[in-house]
Design a protein that fits this description.
Blueprint lengths: L1 E5 L5 H14 L6 H13 L3 E8 L2 E11 L7 E9 L8 H15 L4 E3 L7 H10 L13
Parallel strand pairs: 4-5
Antiparallel strand pairs: 1-2, 2-3, 3-4
């Protein structure tokens, strides 16, 4: 049975394993202090938020998100990180996490939920093309 909910203190190790897997997918290795800082912020649930997907009470997916002001619409909800354990893929966890973020965003009067992914992430893009609209924007960034 699949359930979605807030991350609890007992989820810390499983969350870190999943978040490390997410970062490894994008070629990043993060120091322990990075995980400690992120976990503390998620537990406060003020500026950044996290939810987990559980299959038979085992944490198999995570999503991190935040809101920000918009100059042209109601506040926006940015879905920053989404990751499902490889052994749980195809079982609805990622879709359920996206749906849960959208429900949270509606409850908090956001005008949209949006996210980005790498163009080569074909597996994720198959799902994203089903649940959202690709509006054709290209992401630019300046590393600081």
């Amino acid at each position: 049975m699949l359930t979605i909910g807030r991350l609890e203190s007992a989820d810390r190790d499983a969350w870190q394993t999943l978040f490390a897997g997410y970062n490894e997918f994008y070629g990043r290795t993060m120091p322990d202090e990075f995980f400690d800082h992120a976990w503390t912020r998620f537990q406060r649930d003020e500026e950044v938020h996290a939810l987990g997907a559980r299959l038979d009470d085992k944490l198999v997916g995570i999503v991190h998100f935040l809101t920000h002001a918009s100059t042209t619409a109601p506040d926006s909800c940015y879905l920053q990180d989404l990751f499902t354990a490889p052994e749980a893929r195809g079982r609805g966890a990622a879709r359920a996490l996206i749906d849960a973020v959208a429900a949270w965003a509606r409850e908090h009067a956001c005008g949209r939920v949006y996210w980005s992914t790498h163009e080569s992430n074909a597996t994720a893009r198959r799902l994203y093309d089903q649940v959202a609209e690709n509006r054709g924007f290209i992401l630019y960034q300046i590393p600081l």
